[in-house]
Automatic annotation (TrEMBL):
Organism: Gluconacetobacter johannae
GO CC term, one of those recorded: plasma membrane
UniProt-annotated location(s): Cell membrane; Membrane
Membrane topology: Multi-pass membrane protein
A biological process from GO: protein repair
Cofactor binding comment, as recorded: Binds 1 heme b (iron(II)-protoporphyrin IX) group per subunit.
Cofactor(s) this protein requires: heme b; FMN
Assembly mode: Heterodimer of a catalytic subunit (MsrP) and a heme-binding subunit (MsrQ).
Protein name per the record: Protein-methionine-sulfoxide reductase heme-binding subunit MsrQ
Amino acid sequence: MAARLSAGRVRTLLYAVGLVPAAATFAMGVANRLGADPVNVFERTLGLWAIRFLILSLCVTPLRELAGINLLRYRRALGLLAFWYALFHVTAYVGLDQGFDGAVLLADITRRPFVILGMVAFLIVSVLAATSNAWSIRRLGRRWGAVHRMVYLAGLCAAVHFILSFKVLRVEPLLYAVVMAVLLLYRLLPGAVRRRRLAQR
């Protein structure tokens, strides 16, 4: 019981700390400290943190299998933080960037590849967030694992979305894409190879 309470406290702390960047960025926006293009900076910062938390959630399994560090009990919290930042990012785009203009939004979602990829990633993490509970696990049964493996598709879509959101290639988005690709390649390793590696721990 003590261990469960301890894990619960850690998760609560993780949520609190994890939302600090959003609160800090919002406060900077209110104080007019986000530079010449505050909406763009606000929107990009939220999206960047969504990718960061998504990567952290994907690192949980490799850390356990390769380094013996077991953070499985915190993976859901990391995934939910990725969802919340993705939601903040999309809300900023819809409300602050496009002013809730339905025609412009429809044109973006149907014609601009980087927006399409971003929306695909957001829809996937939304489904994953909605099914990250005991009821969904029981309801979906074996299908739950298949549904949640879509997180890798979300990660790749988010990484390419990040790259294409700039008019020129930049190092930072490419680095995030490489990390996502490495995590996906690790996931694609045969199960026997990964189990053997885990057994050697």
